[in-house]
Design goal:
The chain is about 35% helix and about 25% strand. It is α/β, with parallel strands linked by helices and about 400 residues long. Helix 4 links the parallel strand 10 and strand 11. Helix 10 runs parallel beside helix 11.
Length: about 400
Amino acid sequence: MLRELKKNIYAVGVQDWDRRLFDELIPLPHGTSYNCYLVKGSQKTALVDSVDPARYQELLANLAEHQVKALDYIVCNHAEQDHSGSIGFLAEKFPQATVVTNEKCKGFLMDLLHIPENRFQVVKDGDTLSLGDKTFEFILAPWVHWPETMFSFLREDKVLFSCDFLGSHLATTDIFACDDTVLEGAKRYYAEIMMPFRSSIVKHLQKLEAMDIDLIGPSHGPVYKKPFHIVEAYKDWSSEQVRNEVVIPWVSMHGSTEAMVKHLTEALVKRGISVKPFNLTKTDTGELASSLVDAATVVLATSTALVGPHPQGLYAAALVGALRPKTKFLGIIGSYGWGSKAVETIKSLLTNLKAEVLEPVYIKGAPRKEDFEALDKLADSILEKHKTLGLL
């Protein structure tokens, strides 16, 4: 399908409508795409990134539709295989093509794809590459989300190819992002992929603000015709600003922890606080991750299984610890039968967060009157903490 973004700049990637899991970890309810872009200059032709190797034949068909007989350059912005995985095949198909990337990415490609060293042209931050009437400028962008990532900017056309940065897992026939659905997918993608690297994200956003950009072409999801719509969203998500929200990931084996979650939820709502409870046995991990982007407080609620947190509670704690949201306060509630080290275990998994741990409410057996009163005190404490942040 011929899809021209600007004169002689084409989207030639593929849509993966049926993929439902990424890295055997991340749910993809709306599939995904592997975007790559063909740039035809007056003297040279370049391909920016490639596709997942399982979809290589579709990429070849797209290049054939554009009557591509030869490639001079294959620009690699990121070595992760959903973008780089077909570069080895392309290097064989187009033996005259040079793989253009930075030094660290070159090392990754040599390890992951066994591309020989003599096929590379290494670029540094600010280096340029001329295709004749079109010029690439390369911008190193480490830790969005790997250490070797970079952006490629076409100066004359003001098109930024940002690879994973600013993308979204979404299969669609729409080439351009045009509604809030895309922004919702981008937020989920940010939460799952980019949120642990917030400090790096902030620095790279500052770089983009100084640039004159017409289009942003990420490596997943639609192209942005209003580039600073997504940039402004990223600025909000990666800022220190939180909302008057409490997220409660919970699991209950026999109903005691569930009763505590219901009581705490009602107590918080009565105090004017928005609550998002997630039953961990049923919830979508991506929705939970998205909810963590803005919440001022997270309360993890879990039963005890064999003196530790229930495995679902353990997973939720590990997930929150790994994603490192900007949440300011953490709570732990739950129940045990004969003994528990659940609180200590959960705390040990959340040390990555710069958050204040509130007094846990972890009880033996089914909750009694005094336990519900302790939950009311926890709700009062959260209310006061949110007030200190000016959220109420």
